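pinging the channel bc i need a second pair of eyes. not urgent but kinda urgent?? the chain im working w is below, pasted from the shared doc
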Amino acid sequence: MKKVLIIGATSAIAEATARLFAKRGDRLFLLARNEEKLAVIAQDLKIRGAESVLAGKFDALSIDRHNVILDQAIEQLEGIDLVLIAHGTLPDQKVCEASIEKTITALNINALSVISLLSHLANTFAKQGSGSIAVISSVAGERGRQSNYIYGAAKGAVSIFLQGLRHRLHKSGVHVLTIKPGFVDTPMTAELPKGPLWAQPDQVARSIFNAIEKKKSVVYTPGFWAFIMLIVRLVPNWIFHKTKL
């Protein structure tokens, strides 16, 4: 049994992963903005075998409250073994291009709020000298593309921050996992056209669960995205700039 904190617990990927934790009999604390949906998910996880499921409201943009919310959750869990950070939004690139305010909000939600949480949690995990920190980033953070560079910039910042955090916490015995999903069929991507590269949340959840258990540093999910992104990173600019990606 592990004591698990899930932030952004109402996201499709987080919910699917939480079911795997519940099946193992873990003690869970769920944080998300939608309290009504949280209650439904919590009840489902209890039925699936979780030792206990607690829940609380979380607003990513209330950065000045992050430390209080985290401390309360960890106290109610009676400690912490694992945190999964899964909240985020998929901003409209064109809308952000026309609005500095929308751009800043997107960066605050997808990057700065995550970095805030990680900064608090890193000190907690370092002090106890054990545990795992798992964060959902994205393959979009690997290279800036005209179609989603606001979102990509945020995820790229998170991935780089996690690299440094992993380096810092290695000597403390704390595991840090960067999760890089490709296209996933979730409510957040409901309006996008689907194709053969798309995965389902349950498939991604299994990859996350296994990567945590094996203490991997980075996991691309599905795994073929590691090869796709290797090619994307290696394409010369003079070719890349002719694409419509």
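so DSSP finds nine helices and seven strands in the chain. and The first strand starts at residue 3 and ends at 7. — does that match what u expected or am i reading it wrong
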